[in-house]
User: Fold this.
Amino acid sequence: MQFRNLKKQYEVLKQKMDEAIGQVLEASSYISGRQVAELEEELARYVGVKHCITCANGTDALTLALMAWGIGKGDAVFVPDFTFFSSAETVAYAGATPVFTDILEDTFNMDPESLERAVQAVLAEGKLKPRAVVTVDLFGLPADYDRIRRIADQYGLYILEDAAQGFGGSYDGKRAGSFGDIATTSFFPAKPLGCYGDGGAVFTDCDEWASLLRSLRIHGKGSDKYDNVRIGMNSRLDTLQAAVLQVKLEAFRAYELQDTDRIASRYAEGLKDCVKVPSVPSGYGSGWAQYSILLRDEKERAEVQAYLKEHDVPTMIYYQKGMHQQTAFQECSLYGEHFPVTEQVCRRVLALPLSPYLTEEEQQKVIRLIREKISGSKEEHA
Ligand SMILES: *Cc1c(COP(=O)(O)O)cnc(C)c1O
Assistant:
């Protein structure tokens, strides 16, 4: 069994995909071909924002956003402790200081109370200026934007929505990628919408930031790329990847997201009485980057994972440790925050195989094995 069945997806899309790739090769316009501009329009329309600026990957997308806001030395940027490294790495790379917050067990997303405490601690210390909060739509579920927006407004923070996993997620009729002042996503192959290599995008409604981002991604270009008006980077989405994404976005909108949602519901039905299944609060939709369950403790997780592996079912642990436990962040001040939820989730979380192409038989096997293992070890205890 595949963890995320990308090969099957290609088989289904093969005819359209080969044609789309063939067209790029025929036109030989490998950088900034027409597909890139077309895709940007399609993505902006789907997400529901004015501007989409594609770039080389989701990490660069975050860096570009921080550059557009001039965030750097002396600035504090708040980041959930439970996320992929990039969410905080890019803050440090920009020269700013990442300040971590704990998460909520039910959604795996930023805990607004922890955020507010951290902002107040930074203000009380008086050394750094709070500038922005990176909200991560973890595993596909948008963060709590009602509460985070109130805190951001109160303390004058920008919201940088890291929707690398959130693409396709929604809240209150709006799509992920539209909640931040600037939002970013990733087209890494295993993300909800992935290309055939690296890719990313930035979203915003602000005209001024959009034109700044377009300049920053191509060497700080002015009127053209040989007129350089600021220091930028080289971070473009290849035409080939744009063509791939046009085909995949069509499938994503037509059926993939609904199919994944149906599979997630079946997991919930089949497992909710024996493990903690992810909850999708009312008004929210998940893009289902991952289907992550919580086992009772580290021992039960290890047993279930080993049992699944024995039966050819791959699983993953996202994530093994919090940001504050990463070696690279060992010197970071924690501003009095503790991360009890992140730490226990790291010991209990397990991501199950998920893709729109997971068959019902494959899924029933996963459910059956987990139930078998958990009821088996309960009997042993009894
Ligand atoms: C994948 C991911 C990124 C980085 O995206 P890349 O395209 O791999 O650079 C950033 N943030 C989160 C939450 C991610 O999952």
